[in-house]
Amino acid sequence: MILASRRIALTLLTFGLFLALGIVAVQARAMPGADADPVPADLATPAGSAVMSLTGPEPMAALADLGAPPRAVLGYDPVIIDGAPANPRGGCSTPVPLPDRFEPLCKIHDLGYDLLRLAARSGRPLGPWARQRLDHALVEAMHDSCTDPICEIGADLADVGLRANTWRQRAGTPITHEGVGDIALSLAVRAAEATAR
């Protein structure tokens, strides 16, 4: 009897997990990408202007948009990778191994996330458009770097992961350090909210 109860509980837990992951995937895929409309007030801020530059045709302009030396506002001197400023300590943080060619692209994306944190510290956090734009730019750059199907699959996996994480964090300021429990709880809360609608 106890064994049967445990099997039922495990089956229900597994079903709930797959349901939650399905909701996360659907909700995350529905999030806008680079076409998210910037908030005009955000663009008047140094961080907002820098995000637009970093994701646009002249990414180096992002450093000038800061209005102060990068070390003073970011806490480090960016490195330049393929004509774009990047966080020298950044990289791809994912539980799934990604192609090595993505690592420099993730460093650029990490600088973008640092801009979002800068905006929050200044008391003027940027709207969801900024994080969505940064994520979209990273995924596009990943796909552009690919020359084989395995790489393309890696870029698609990164896209799903980025969208899910951004959705989970409500497209707000990226949270730097979270435990597995915090991540699981926030996923469960967001999935519950989505099913309640």
Describe the model.
The structure is a single chain. With 197 residues, this protein is mostly helical. It has one domain (2-196). The chain is built from 9 helices and 2 strands. It has helices at 2-29, 40-43, 46-54, 61-65, 70-74, 103-121, 128-145, 149-168, 180-196, and strands spanning 79-81, 84-86. A two-stranded antiparallel sheet has the order 1-2. Strand 1 (79-81) and strand 2 (84-86) form a beta hairpin. Helix 1 (2-29) crosses helix 9. Residues 9-25 have low confidence and may be disordered.
Summarize the model shown.
This protein is mostly helical and 197 residues long. The chain is built from nine helices and two strands; from the N terminus they run αααααββαααα.
Write the layout of secondary structure elements.
Elements: H1 2-29, H2 40-43, H3 46-54, H4 61-65, H5 70-74, E1 79-81, E2 84-86, H6 103-121, H7 128-145, H8 149-168, H9 180-196
Antiparallel strand pairs: 1-2
